[in-house]
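C-alpha cells in:
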C-alpha cells in the first residue's frame, strides 16, 4: 500500500508568540504560582518557567511542598532580578554596562541557563574616548557557544530631588504590632521567597499592606513601616513598626506622592522578612496604596462588627 501523504504545518511566529505570551501572563499576574523577592520587592512568576531556566531553583521548588513558594534572593538587587526575569521570559535583555557584572554574577549564583557560563569578552575596552556613551556596545560570549549577545549600554537620567518641606497639619495613627510566628522555613541562607505583579524596572519603590488592627503599612527594602502622619500636600511620614515595642527603632521615612524623599536613622534590628512573608501568603501585599486603603476599610468594618 502506498503511504498516505502527510502535511507539515508550521507557524513561523510560534516562538515569538510563546515568549511574548508568557511575558504578558507574568506581567499581568495571570496563572502565577510562586514569588521571587529582592530588595523588598515581591515579584510573582511561574514555577515551570523558572524551573526550566534554573535547575538550582527547580530543586528548591521540588523540596518546598507548598502550592505557592516564596524565595528571597538576598544577594540580588531588585534591578538585577527584573533583568533576570526579562532574560528568562524573552531570551534577551538590555542592561547597562555598569550592571552587567552583577547580572552575570546573579546568573551564575542561580545557575540560569545561558547566563551561568557567560563571560565578558576580553576584548572589551573601557577606554574609548571617541565613542559616545549612548552608542556604546559590548559583546559577551558563551563559553561553549559561538553565539554572541549584544547589550547596549543605557544611561539613566537622574531624578530631580523632591522637596521635603512639610505642612503643619497631620493625622497621627498609632497601632500595636502583632506578634508574628517565627516558624517560617527558609530554604537556605542565600535564597528565601516573596511577590509583586509586575517585573518592569518601573515598578513602584514601595508596597503597602494593612495591620491586623486595620492600619495602613508600607513595605520598603524588607522593612515594614506604619503610617504616622499625613499632611495636606500628600506627604506622609512612616515609622518602623518596631518603634512601638521595646526595640524603639528610630528609623522613619518621608514619602510624597508615593516616592521616598527622605530617610532618617537606620534600623536597629533584622529585616522583617518573616512578617512580610506571612502577609504575602495571606494575599495582603499591594503595589498601590489605594488597594491597601480599600483593604484597610474592609478590615476596619469587619473589626467593628
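Residues out:
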Amino acid at each position: 500500500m502506498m503511504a498516505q501523504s502527510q502535511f507539515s504545518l508550521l507557524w513561523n511566529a510560534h516562538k515569538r508568540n510563546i515568549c511574548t505570551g508568557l511575558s504578558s501572563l507574568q506581567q499581568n499576574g495571570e496563572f502565577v504560582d510562586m514569588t521571587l523577592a529582592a530588595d523588598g520587592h515581591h515579584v510573582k512568576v511561574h514555577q515551570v518557567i523558572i524551573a526550566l531556566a534554573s535547575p538550582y531553583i527547580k530543586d528548591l521548588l521540588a523540596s518546598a511542598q507548598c502550592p505557592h513558594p516564596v524565595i528571597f534572593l538576598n544577594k540580588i538587587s531588585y534591578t538585577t532580578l527584573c533583568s533576570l526575569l526579562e532574560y528568562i521570559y524573552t531570551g534577551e535583555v538590555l542592561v547597562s554596562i555598569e550592571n552587567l557584572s552583577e547580572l552575570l554574577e546573579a546568573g551564575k549564583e542561580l545557575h540560569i541557563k545561558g547566563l551561568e557560563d557567560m563571560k565578558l569578552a576580553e576584548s572589551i575596552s573601557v577606554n574609548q574616548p571617541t565613542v559616545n556613551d549612548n552608542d556604546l556596545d559590548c559583546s559577551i560570549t558563551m563559553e561553549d557557544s559561538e553565539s554572541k549577545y549584544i547589550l547596549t549600554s543605557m544611561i539613566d537620567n537622574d531624578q530631580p530631588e523632591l522637596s521635603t518641606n512639610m505642612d503643619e497639619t497631620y493625622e497621627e495613627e498609632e497601632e500595636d504590632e502583632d506578634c508574628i510566628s517565627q516558624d517560617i522555613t527558609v530554604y537556605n541562607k542565600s535564597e528565601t521567597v516573596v511577590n509583586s505583579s509586575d517585573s518592569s524596572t518601573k515598578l513602584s519603590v514601595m508596597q503597602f499592606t494593612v495591620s491586623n488592627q486595620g492600619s495602613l503599612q508600607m513595605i520598603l527594602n524588607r522593612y515594614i513601616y506604619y503610617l504616622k502622619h499625613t499632611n495636606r500636600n500628600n506627604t506622609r511620614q512612616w515609622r518602623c513598626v518596631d518603634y512601638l515595642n521595646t526595640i524603639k527603632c528610630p528609623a522613619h521615612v518621608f514619602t510624597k506622592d508615593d516616592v521616598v524623599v527622605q530617610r532618617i536613622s537606620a534600623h536597629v534590628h533584622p529585616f522583617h522578612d518573616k512578617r512580610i512573608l506571612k502577609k504575602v501568603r495571606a494575599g495582603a501585599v499591594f503595589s498601590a496604596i489605594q488597594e491597601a486603603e480599600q483593604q484597610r476599610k474592609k478590615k476596619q468594618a469587619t473589626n467593628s462588627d
